[in-house]
Amino acid sequence: MPCPYKKNLIQHILSIMKPCTIVVVIAGTNNPSNSAVLAQHFTEGIKTVDGIEVKIVHLNNLHITHFTIERYNPACEADDDFCTIENTLRDAAGIVIASPIWNFSVPSHLKNLIDRMGAFALDQETHSKGQLQSKPFALIYTGGAPMIAWKALMYLTTLHIAEALKYYGGTILYRHFEPKCVQGKGKFGLVVDKRLEILKAMNRAGAAFGNVALQYAQSGTLPFGSRFWHGWFSFLYRVGNRVMYPISTFQ
Asked: What CATH number should be reported for the domain holding residue 45?
């Protein structure tokens, strides 16, 4: 009969030996891009943590086929750039998403990427059970509106991104919105590079996120507070599914 302690020890050693990779997904399309600059400084903070490798993905450089129901099939087609990042996203110890907010939502290629992630982030039988096992996420947003607009409305209109990732089993550890990313009225352009305090804050937040991701890679667990909220959210989803599915059969 196998020894559980020995098995757990071997799994722990293998997890430590496995490289800790954090993927940074940049959804901005402008060059230079405010969201990309914030992501750069967040990444610099991550790199201060020993034992972490960072991979940066620019969605604007990829062609990811538009989501259809058939895309839930995990088989990967060679002519689709999703194949080039699928394993990277699946195996990452943490994922950072940096995106502008356009017209109260994110660029369509980011929403499409999240939809396509359902091929591996949901179970194959029901497509309703998250498979990401509490994987940590950080969300960095930029927009031209003032902070009051974010708190009053834009937070709600972009909530679908965080909720989808949590539905997949992920845990949102960090969320930031940078307001007034405009050079003047109706004039868009790079401005965050001059906001030194914000860039320092991004660096500190990146280091903190890196430490949590490293712990997650080595032990498979998050800090207690993050585990609590992830468990609570998962419980609410399970209750919601049990209530809604019977109701849906009568419609």
From this structure: 3.40.50.360
Query: Rounded to whole angstroms, how far apart are CA atoms 249 and 251?
Result: 6
For the chain, how many structural domains are there in total?
1
Summarize the confidence of residues 86-108 as an average pLDDT: 96
What is the percent of the chain where pLDDT is above 90?
A: 68
Question: What's the pLDDT score for residue 89?
Answer: 96
**pLDDT tens digit sequence for 106-158:** 999 999 999 999 999 999 999 889 999 999 999 999 999 999 999 999 999 99
Confirm whether 15 is domain-assigned. no
Cβ contacts of 247 within 8 Å, gap of 6 or more: none
Q: Is residue 99 domain-resident?
A: yes
Which residue range forms the structural domain that includes residue 217?
20-248
Burial class (CB in 10 A: 0-12, 13-18, 19+), 189: exposed
Mean pLDDT, rounded, for 4-23:
60
Asked if the structure places residue 13 within a domain, the reply is no
Residue 196 is assigned to a structural domain of this protein: yes
